[in-house]
Structures are given as structure tokens and as C-alpha cells.
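Handout, section B. The chain below has 83 residues.
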Amino acid sequence: MKFAFLLMLLAEDSLPNLPGKSTYMTICSECHGADAVTSMGHNRAGWKDIVDDMVDKGATATPKQAKEIINYLAKAFPKKPAK
């Protein structure tokens, strides 16, 4: 259990410090690490689809928490411009 907590703290350090980060860590880290999103980039609608899918699969986010997570992800990991 201590190892899992350490991994969570390390993952938390790799994420941008923006509003909604703690909600993301609380809800999303129950199932996967930060690396699940750091390589992704979506617009707000794309992140909403992903978060809604996670809630449908059992994530325990309230509607308010889901909105906070979507806003966080949209700001922290926006859609990357085409090269």
C-alpha cells in the first residue's frame, strides 16, 4: 500500500497545477495513473466524452466533480495542433 501511495504522489507531481487537479487525482487515480492522460490531447468535447465514458464504466464522480475533471483536462492537456 505504501508503494501505491508513493506512485500516486510521483504521478501528482507530473501533472500541471491547475484548478481541478485534486479532483482528478482523487477520482481518476483510483483506476489508473497520470500517464493515462499526459500523452493525450483533446478539446473540451473530447475530454467530456472520455470522462462520461469513465463514469459509465463505474468512476464515482458526481456531476460537479466530472465537470471539474473535464475542465482540468481541457486546460492541462488541450488538443495538439496538427504537424
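Note. Helices lie at 2-13, 21-28, 35-38, 44-56, 63-76. Compare this with the example in section A.
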